[in-house]
Amino acid sequence: MSAADPSLIIYHKGFVILYMLVYVDDILLTSSSSSSLDDIVATLGRTFSLKDLGSGRYFLGIEIMPQPHGIVLTQQRYILHLFNHTNLAEVKPLTSSMEANIKLFKFSGDSLSDPFEYRNIVGTLQYVTITRFDIPFSVNKACQFLHSPTIKPCAAVKRILRYLKQIVDHGLYFYSTPALLTLRAFSNADWASYPNDKQAIGGYLIYLGCNVVAWSSKKQPTIA
């Protein structure tokens, strides 16, 4: 795990489960037992200087919103900050994150005068995929041009932003008591449609009951 990633610590004793997410000096604690949560906070407070901010509401750009039957995780505030940073707050929204059957070629078209801006936006969009499993495929496509971005990939990135503008308040709803804990997985690949090296981009989506628990979209390392 890199230095930029949060560390997850899981403690299990009997029927009590405690999750501790640590990022530099920020800590998020959750537990199946409120008394166990109070105990661990008190224990940490005897060793370290802590400030208890109460129930989690915002952590590393992710908003945590309790609901009657679970919680919602969203990055609406984070995405709106991205719109303001890129001066795209007034763009017209779109209903899809990428054109159908689009072909993006490396070194085709004029190079960007400021490739750092492209890399910064794409890096930010990668973080947005934490709560948005509808954009990893499009963001993965954009990541293929970080080395030498040109005009066409830049337009594709702006389309992703315009799509997010359409549904900026969407997020993940995790039900606390799902009816069935059935594990279901879906996967697909684009059959080597990437024109630069003929490698396929594959993806998967995994549900536990009605909750999405894992997803990914990445270029496959081999050619079949």
Tell me the strand order in the biggest sheet.
Answer: 4-5-6-7
What is the count of distinct domains? 2
Tell me the major beta sheet. Answer: 4 strands, antiparallel
Indicate the multimeric state.
single chain
Summarize this structure as a short list of keywords or feature phrases:
224 residues, 2 domains, four-stranded antiparallel β-sheet, 5 helices, 10 strands, globular, DNA/RNA_pol_sf, RVT_2
Explain what the structure shows:
This protein has 224 residues and is α+β, with helices and mostly antiparallel strands. It folds into 2 domains: 54 residues, no CATH class; 167 residues, no CATH class. It contains 5 helices and 10 strands; from the N terminus they run βββαβββααααββββ. It has a 4-stranded antiparallel sheet with strand order 4-5-6-7. β2 and β3 form a beta hairpin. The longest helix has 16 residues. The two termini are 30 Å apart.
Give a topology summary:
Layout: E1 7-13, E2 16-23, E3 26-31, H1 34-47, E4 58-59, E5 62-67, E6 70-74, H2 76-85, H3 115-128, H4 136-143, H5 151-166, E7 171-175, E8 183-189, E9 201-208, E10 211-219
Antiparallel strand pairs: 1-2, 2-3, 4-5, 5-6, 6-7, 8-9, 9-10
